[in-house]
Amino acid sequence: MGGLWGAMGGLWGALGGLWGAMGGLWGALGGLWGGSGGLWGAMGDYGGAMGGLWGAMGVMGWNRGVMGGNGRLWGCIGGVMGGGWAVPDPPPIAGDTSRGSHCPFMDLGGDPPFVQRAPPEVQEDVTPPETGTAPSPIPIGDIGTGAYSSPIAPSPPAPLDWLMELMETPKEAPPERALEDNLPDGAFPYTALLESRLAALRSTHAYRVFTAVRRRAEAPPLALGGAPQRPLQLWCSNDYLGMSRHPAVLRAARAALSAHGLGSGGTRNLSGTSPVHEALELSLAQLHQQPQALLFGSCFSANDTGLGTLLRVLPGCEVFSDAGNHASIIQGILRSGAPKRLFRHNDPEHLGELLARSPPGTPKIVAFESVHSMDGSIAPLSELCDVAHAHGALTFVDEVHAVGLYGARGAGIAERDRVLHKVDIVAGTLGKAVGAVGGYLAGPAPLVDAVRSLGAGFIFTTSLPPAVAAGALAALRVLAGAEGRALRRALQRHARYLRELLRDRRLPVRACASHIVPLPVGDALAAQRLTQVLLQHHGLYVQAVNYPTVPRGEELLRLVPTPHHSPAMMENLAGERGAPPGSSCSSCRRPLHWALMSDWERRHFQGEAVPVGA
């Protein structure tokens, strides 16, 4: 396969052409780009003439790999500029060690103050080669054909016994270390301050203790957890429809995992964009009938970065935020420094009053959630959008707890209410009904492009793994079809049934029309004890929601029945809680949250109201 350029030496070959090895302008013996001391040559094998683009390819033969003699990028460039098209390496010069340097700045002369020479064992995690022994190149396989051969012999596939053993092995106590160990006397007491803050959380029962569970993908909503391990029923998962273990989702994720590997490899701008990412963004844009969509690592980041970036870009922009908004929206507003106004939760009239005080020409954004994450209330989305637009404000709607759960295709409350066109910016998640992880924004092209180009939380973050993106794509396809509609109907039926059961037990379940079933408690300690009893004595994992997720005094149990919870499971949950909790608790006489209950809830608790479905 020597070809015209190979066997004959080529027009620029060894016979002394313009770029020839014997003294061409860029020749190997000292030209600026030369192979033996020039800027590229000084980087070791990077600039050798054998790294030439055509020489490395065997003159169009692909026998040495696309990138040159040693497969290095600079070898390709250095060969084209220095060694010509098909010029062989010049013979080594006795005593010449310039090729051994890996830093061009060291070979330019002198010792710059910012550079220190170090032996090989310091520069790399390798042992120095023996004198007179050249290091062996690492085989890189045939890049041209896509094959890959590792220099390390692959280990045979092994079962995941080590992982199971790791999960079941008792955790060793970590070594003790204080922040002040490396500080002089008189330094700030970091440890004491942090411990005092944590002690304050414990004293108010707001300190968070995680419960480790092993979800059973083959049998949702079951899991293993507790100490010792025992079967559990999950009642607090945000995997609302069980899509994380859907066969189509798992197949897509496995295929992408085999094709692309575990991670994405970089930020979106640095090799972290794959066709899977682009396909997912297109699918999300189409779902919400928006021109563009943009993926984030989480919806917290989407809200924080998206809203914060827009508020900074729009000069003098004011933001009008629902009083019940999620922490991610609040964080984005605070970080932007924009003037903010709070309107009462889901109150279009109060929003209109606040907007009327803002000058007509001032840019404005109204931000709210379509389904509230904790109390389960559904916003009057159409009315809020109408009020915002009447005063020249854009709408930023968080559909995190609605995507996949409402609407004919699962686009959320805006689709259910047929007002997709009224939403200017929509934020959604892949980590709840979709069953994956990640978040996104969708909206007009200039808006999305501004966040893509200016949002630090997007620019400097590694993109989602392709396997996650592929699984999310598969989940969206399922949710947009007949199976997705059947799952949504089952979810709503189960939520209504659980509310009826709890009300029949005279428990003050909060009335709402969403899939979330909040049970107010109103006291952090009582909520904590309730969850402990349910978990330890009944195998029911119900999570207490305390401050700062909800305001102090509004602590609650957040119940989420899924399509996979059976009626018997729901009856068991309501029946266990219907029994008197014990003399140490006053809930059986008057709830601790009595002052927070509505008149309807009080009448219902006293037996004056007729149990009805939500």
UniProtKB/TrEMBL annotation:
Cofactors demanded by this protein: pyridoxal 5'-phosphate
Name of the protein in its database record: 5-aminolevulinate synthase
Membrane topology field: Peripheral membrane protein
Boundaries of every Aminotransferase class I/classII large domain copy: 234-574
Cellular component GO terms, alphabetical: cytosol; mitochondrial inner membrane; mitochondrial matrix
Protein family per UniProt: Belongs to the class-II pyridoxal-phosphate-dependent aminotransferase family.
Compartments, as annotated in UniProt: Mitochondrion inner membrane
Pathway the protein takes part in: Porphyrin-containing compound metabolism; protoporphyrin-IX biosynthesis; 5-aminolevulinate from glycine: step 1/1
